[in-house]
Amino acid sequence: MKILPLVRVELARLTSSRLSIAALIALMIVPVIYGGLYLWGNQDPYSNLDNVPAALVVEDAGTTVDGKPVNYGADTAKQLLDDEKFGWVRTTEAQAQAGVRNGTFDFAVTFPASFSKNLSSAASTSPVAAHIGLITNDTNSYLSTTIAKQGAEAVRVALAQKVGAAASQALLGAVASLRSGLVDARDGAAQLADGATSAASGAASLARGLAQLDSGAATLPGATARLSSGASQVAVGAKQLSAAAPAAASGAKSAAAGAKSLNAGLSQLAASTPGIRQDLVATLASSNLSGADQQRLVGEFDAVSGGVSASRSGAASLAGGLSTLSGKLSALPGSASRLASGASQVASGAKELAGATPALASGIRSAATGASSLSTGLTKLDDGAGTLKTSLDRGVAQVPATTASERALAAATIADPVNVNQVALTSAQNYGAGLAPFFISLAGWIGIYALFLLVRPISRRALTAVRRPLRTVLAGWATPATLGVLQMAALFALITLGLHLQIANPLGLLGFMALASITFAAIILALNVLFGSVGQFLGLLLMVVQLVTAGGTFPWQTLPAPLAFIHQALPMSHAVEGVRQLMYSGSTNDVAGPILWLVGWLVASLAIATAGARKQGRFRTLRELRPSPIGG
Q: Is 470 helix (H, G, I), strand (E, B) or coil?
């Protein structure tokens, strides 16, 4: 017999009665029901989290920040209630504990009394970590606990960003103030350097002057000794002058009186000189002297007369001068007495000065030494001030100048330094679409497995009569393969038209689902041919193994090493990978590997089934001739 007649015979057997038709229809819709219901129930669970009951406890007492009252717990609770991501209910701590314990709430979030106080301490010198309480109970739902942890973590991150921004703002403000202080310090250091330069120059001049003074001070003791001796001699002379002053004043007075008398006599003599000359001329005229002698004598008389006139003038001046001197000398005794007294004091002071000169010289020497040290110190101060200014210049350059808006932006960046820019090369529509590759593949296996509860793996009569095992195997495979393709077509229609899942490559996905189904049919056929009804059980066992190793829910790399090794070989793993590629990216290039694996399993399974059928065609046992409880 040919393959198509064998297929028609098997289909006629499966539809021979209403009960058979009902059984076939029931088994045909198994993958549709399984895959459809599961994907429908998990299509987008995250959009319905607002139906998950959760308790919200706010005991936060609040605090003050910059003189303003804040309550981070109450603010966050209000935001959670407004977001409505969960079915939040405000309760007390005791009610939350009891509600999570008895299942009224899946979990509870609490904000303790010190929450705001501790949270705001991040900007202080004594920061204390704030805590958000999370009460869970896995007997309510393990996944709700996982989601609650993620929600609490999101709240923690948001609050950390908010407080971190405030703390960073305060820190950057302090840095700005520090920079302002550094600028002032730098300017002050510049002034200090200028002043130190001037002071160093002045100190050097002072040191030179004191050095010269020190040199001169070396001669000071001898000079003051001589000054003391001279002052003593002056004091002695002044005393002697004071003693002689009265006599000098009296003599000057007498001399002035005599000068006046002399002046009066000379005046009288000068007045009588003309008459005497006349008498002399008359007398000489009557004498026997010659004319020359007479003239000579008259000339001499005139000369004497002129001397008298001159003497009279000098006597007058002498009388005036002596009179003035007498007046001056009348004050000489008092002045001489004061001079003597002053000279004695000078002598006494000069003696004291001479005694103090060695100490003064020593002090000047010490001052000169100190001035030299001061000059050296001020030079170092000048150098240090210059170094300080340079260092402060570098410090100012290293602290950037920022505006208030720049600091606010920097604070926000510090609080949330990393943003995730996701580049989705492919993306699933929702949570249900993310699970679809796994459950489509699993539904395909379950559908084929269910069909073999009714479909005979091979026709034993045909195998015995015709003795063409390959044709018999292909006919036995074609029936469940055809029905499996119909199952996949129905499931494809459900996920696209009923669940509206987005498919990047619809035709490619439909064809690949058909390939996976006929491959699974060949595998279960081979198990049934080789092991009979036990092979059907092995098909169930293989499904369970692939349920774990296919990597449909978690990445297969998270599996234990033995299961990860099995993942690489089993067909459902490659079926899941192929469906994923065609659903999300639509690229047929990345499906070549999964197709080759499935084709390999298909060919190998048919070859193994053929080898088993050939063996059965040669040897039949009484057990094989009995009707099978599975498959007929």
A: helix
Kindly provide the residue ranges of all beta strands, DSSP E only, lying in 118-196, ordered along the sequence.
133-136
550 and 573 in contact (C-beta within 8 Å)?
A: yes
Q: What is the pLDDT of residues 278-322, one digit of tens each?
A: 776 777 777 777 778 778 877 876 776 776 677 667 667 766 776
- Top mean pLDDT of 35-39, 102-106, 423-427, 553-557 is at 102-106
CA terminus-to-terminus distance, the chain:
20
Cα(284)–Cα(297) distance, integer angstroms: 9
Mean pLDDT value across residues 204-231: 71
Strands 107-111 and 87-90: unpaired
How many CB atoms are closer than 10 A to CB 17?
Answer: 10
**What CA–CA distances, in Å, run from 450 to 19, 40, 517, 540, 601?**
16, 22, 12, 10, 20
| pTM (2 d.p.) | 0.59
Distance between CA atoms of 102 and 108, rounded to whole angstroms? 13
In eight-state DSSP terms, residue 457 is S
User: Phi/psi class of residue 238: alpha, beta or left (left: φ > 0; alpha: ψ in -120 to 50)?
Assistant: alpha
Question: What's the residue count for the chain?
Answer: 632
Q: What tokens appear for 156 in the block? A: 């923690």
Domain count, the chain: 3
Written as six digits, the tokens of 342 are 């002053």
pLDDT band at 336 (very low <50, low <70, confident <90, very high): low
Residue 368 lies inside a defined structural domain of this protein: no
pLDDT for 474 equals 87
118 in any annotated domain: yes
Radius of gyration of the chain (CA): 68
311: containing domain: 220-354
- Co-location of 62 and 35 in the same domain: no
**525 close to 470: Cβ distance less than 8 angstroms:** no
Structural domain includes residue 191 = no
Q: How far apart are CA 480 and CA 602, in angstroms?
A: 13
State which of 332, 354, 376 marks the end of a domain.
354
Whether 121 and 12 map to the same domain: the answer is no
User: What is the spatial distance between Cα 275 and Cα 65, in angstroms, rounded to a whole number?
Assistant: 135
Domain assignment present for 213: no
66-101 burial, b at 16+ Cβ within 10 Å, e below that, comes to eeeebbbbebbbeebeeeebbebbebeeebbbebbe
3-state secondary structure of 460: helix
* Angle formed at CA 201 by CA 200 and CA 204, multiple of 5 degrees: 85
Query: Residue 466: is its pLDDT beyond 60?
Result: no
**Residue 332 and residue 296 share a domain:** yes
Q: Do 169 and 31 belong together in one domain?
A: no
95-99, 141-145, 343-347, range with the lowest pLDDT: 343-347
Structure tokens at 32: 């549709």
3-state secondary structure of 427: coil
Residue 112 has pLDDT above 60, yes or no: yes
Of 8, 31, 26, the closest CA to residue 489 belongs to 31
Residues 12 and 74 in one domain: no
- Over the range 491-506, which residues count as b (16 or more CB within 10 Å of their CB) and which as e? bbebbeeebebebebe
Residue of 461 and 376 predicted with greater confidence? 376
DSSP letter at 627 equals: P
**Distance between CA atoms of 312 and 198, rounded to whole angstroms?**
76
